[in-house]
Design goal:
The complex is a heterodimer of chains A (441) and B (277). Chain A is mainly α and 441 residues long. Chain A has 17 helices and 6 strands. Chain B is α/β, with parallel strands linked by helices. Chain B folds into 2 domains: 183 residues, P-loop containing nucleotide triphosphate hydrolases (Rossmann fold, 3-Layer(aba) Sandwich); 90 residues, Rossmann fold (3-Layer(aba) Sandwich). In chain B, strand 4 and strand 5 form a beta hairpin. The chains are: A mainly alpha (441), B alpha/beta (277).
Chain lengths: 441, 277
């Protein structure tokens, strides 16, 4: 029978009505215990300052009922669209269509991104949002090298973002260097800091590595805050020069781009320029990463994620391999940082908190570690989606949390969990996420 | 005679705190021959392997590797990846250590890392795709294809290594070790978990590696059908010391070896042997 694999997996994972009912009942009991005091009893300070209370058993019963019903629905959904080993109710035609759409998704997305400034020329908000999303796409792709390919959990990625931003800001304001000179310098400096961080932490693995990188991120931020004579401390650096189109400023002056082209000046020119600038930088990151994956260094990163001991037995220098991963990721972070500084015109340590690191890491994990397209989609969903739900006000976080829960149920290894081989003889077939290791640092 | 030894283990000592895992072990492996290291469980065989391949640093003694050109390398002074890279010693593991999420072909490409790194100009030339890099990459794929053909896995080249059956994974691990083009191949229980037909195929593979590549092989094995059929020289260990050494036939008849395996006293074992003949 064709359903044998599904049937065997079901034997180990009970799925009958009794099982669903039992699970829902347990959820309901837990809800009852939790809500009995939170909802069931309402307390308030009375007129005389004494505590008065009254009961709301009706509301309590309703909540427990919702949890019971919700649990059944979630369990049913989970079994229908579950990730592995479960019967899929989606018909083959729909699956084929989705596979076709998936193949062209990257191309379509790229074409659309190129056209965004044309379509939304008058909508400054959309353009700004696009620039923000692309910045996070670039950061996600940069961190993807460290976390997704080399399997090194880095919680302090924002440190390199900060190094890049401050490199450009300080070099430009102190030495009057142009953006195009500072951009590679910012990348090199960030990569240098990546190597510097890499040396002491290479002995650590997994959770310990994560903690130390987290600390490193904080150290950089604290140094920036406290080194007031150089960085301006909490006041930040202001008056950072805007980028020029190879020497031609995009302003209202006589030798500005608009004047030279003989067109009317509009502030949107600069926004569009910034949009294409970050798009080019992000695509460069993507191109380099895709190339690196097919070079021995990229394969060594992935091999390191799979099995470090085997790598050593094959004569791979694990230390330098890890350092190059750190340095490459840091370099892209630094480039993104330099862009951030030139776009904002003002930077302060507040832009480089742990929350940024967590956000970028969430983008990489949600996208599916190692997948370039997944990271781009995740950045779009995390940053763009977050803006989309702005109208929901305080429910925004709730929607976000629910989306996370559903993703965990259906796609535990990220939006695009499978791995594409870097080289093949006959045909390239995607490798299931069950086989691909996440790495232990 | 000693000129033709590829590996010389000299008074090797390995202590873990108070436990002496390997005590004053000396033996030599001949060039172009298959040397087997056998002994009961816990005899210290894998510890010897880990010392030779740089995973442990020996507490005492010397391990010398002599290459074809007469170059001698003191293995106990190298560590970690340098043994595989400079001394050209490759190994496999008792519990298979492939890269499960990478394809069989990718596994063999990773094994050629050091050669490919040089060819790609430490990545920089490879990044811009210079022709010399492209031809080096094609040569690497051809070498991988040749080894996949040798171990009978060519049709599964694009499958994830973790998806291959157990016996195929064992052969792929040997192919991966051979892709580093080693002078000495160390195999830790290559026949473990294989059925009679598969271990027969393994014997043929190892014999063909010795004949065609001229690679010297050092193996740990429990499967006596493998040891007796293909080894040129057998070293027997028990409790961290060498108890016997010689041709497979001589070792099989050694009362000390029988005693070690059957757990009997020496006199008893001799009595058993004599009563049997």
């Amino acid at each position: 029978m064709s359903v044998t694999p599904a049937a065997t997996s079901h034997a180990s994972q009970p799925s009958g009505a009794a099982f669903i009912f039992k699970k829902a009942l347990i959820s309901a009991v837990v809800a009852l215990v939790l809500f009995s005091l939170m909802i069931g009893v309402r307390t308030e300070a009375g007129n005389q300052g004494g505590l008065i209370y009254w009961t709301r058993f009706g509301d309590l019963a309703a909540m427990v009922g919702v949890v019971f019903g919700g649990s059944i629905i979630v369990e049913l959904l989970r079994q229908w669209w579950g990730p592995v080993g479960t019967i899929r109710v989606v018909p083959p035609q729909v699956q084929a269509t989705m596979a076709f759409a998936g193949r062209w998704l990257a191309t379509a997305l790229l074409v659309f991104t190129f056209l965004v400034p044309v379509i939304f020329y008058d909508q400054r908000y959309i353009l700004d949002l696009g620039i923000l999303v692309l910045t996070y796409v670039m950061l996600g792709w940069g961190l993807n090298v460290v976390v997704g390919l080399a399997g090194l959990l880095d919680l302090g990625y924002v440190a390199f973002y900060a190094v890049g931003a401050y490199s450009y800001a300080l070099l430009a304001t102190y030495f009057d260097l142009s953006f195009w000179v500072c951009l590679p310098l910012a990348g090199i400096l960030a990569a240098f800091w990546g190597v510097l961080l890499g040396f002491p932490v290479l002995r650590l693995r997994g959770d310990y590595l994560a903690i130390v990188t987290l600390a490193f991120g904080e150290i950089i931020r604290l140094v920036i805050i406290n080194w007031q004579s150089l960085t301006g401390g909490p006041n930040g650096v202001s008056g950072i020069p805007r980028p020029t189109l190879f020497g031609i400023p995009l302003d209202n002056s006589d030798n500005g781009l608009a004047a030279k082209l003989g067109i009317e000046f509009s502030p949107t020119h600069r926004i569009v320029f910034l949009f294409y600038l970050i798009l080019a930088m992000a695509l460069l990151t993507n191109w380099v990463t895709i190339r690196l994956r097919r070079l021995p260094i990229g394969r060594a990163w992935e091999a390191l994620r799979e099995d470090e001991v085997a790598c050593r037995a094959l004569g791979i220098n694990t230390t330098t391999t890890k350092l190059t991963a750190f340095a490459t990721g840091a370099m892209f972070g630094g480039l993104a940082g330099a862009f951030f500084a030139t776009r904002q015109g003002f930077i302060s340590p507040e832009s480089f908190t742990f929350q940024e690191s967590a956000l970028v890491l969430a983008i990489v994990v949600l996208g599916g570690m190692g997948s370039q397209l997944g990271v781009a989609l995740a950045a779009l969903a995390m940053i763009g989606g977050f803006e989309l739900f702005r109208g929901f006000d305080q429910y925004r976080m709730l929607v976000f949390g629910m989306a996370m829960v559903f993703l965990m149920i259906w796609r535990p290894r990220g939006l695009i969990g499978h791995r594409a081989p870097t080289v093949f003889l006959e045909r390239s077939q995607a490798i299931s996420s069950d086989l691909v290791k996440e790495g232990h640092g | 005679m000693s000129d033709n030894h590829i590996l010389t283990v000299d008074h090797l000592m390995m202590r873990f705190g108070g436990i002496v895992a390997v005590n004053d072990l000396s033996f030599a492996a001949e060039r172009g021959k298959i040397t087997a290291l056998i002994g009961p469980n816990g005899a210290g065989k894998t510890t010897v392997f880990n010392c030779i391949t740089g995973f442990y640093r020996p507490s005492g003694g010397a391990i010398r590797l002599t290459h074809d050109d007469g170059r001698t390398i003191q293995l106990e002074r190298l560590n970690d990846f340098r043994i595989a890279k400079r001394a050209k010693v490759a190994r496999t593991f008792q519990n298979i250590r492939l890269f499960p999420g990478m394809t069989a072909l990718e596994n063999l490409m990773v094994a050629q890392h050091n050669a490919l790194m040089r060819a790609s100009g430490l990545t920089f030339l490879g990044l811009i795709g210079v022709p010399s890099w492209r031809s080096a990459e094609r040569a690497a794929i051809d070498l991988a294809r040749a080894w996949l053909t040798r171990v009978g896995l060519l049709d599964r080249a694009d499958d994830a290594a973790g998806n291959l059956p157990y016996g195929d994974q064992r052969r792929l691990e040997i192919a991966r070790a051979m892709c580093t083009e080693p002078a000495l191949l160390c195999l830790d229980e290559p026949a473990a978990g294989l059925n009679a037909r598969e271990s027969g195929a393994l014997n043929e593979l190892l014999l063909s590696i010795r004949a065609d590549q001229g690679t010297s092989i050092l193996l740990i094995e429990h499967d006596m059908s493998v040891v007796m059929e293909i080894s040129d020289h057998v070293v027997v260990m028990d409790y961290g010391v060498k108890i016997a050494e010689g041709t497979p036939q001589a070792v099989r008849d050694d009362p000390k070896v029988i005693a070690a395996y059957l757990g009997a006293d020496e006199e008893e074992a001799i009595a058993v042997m004599e009563s049997a003949t």
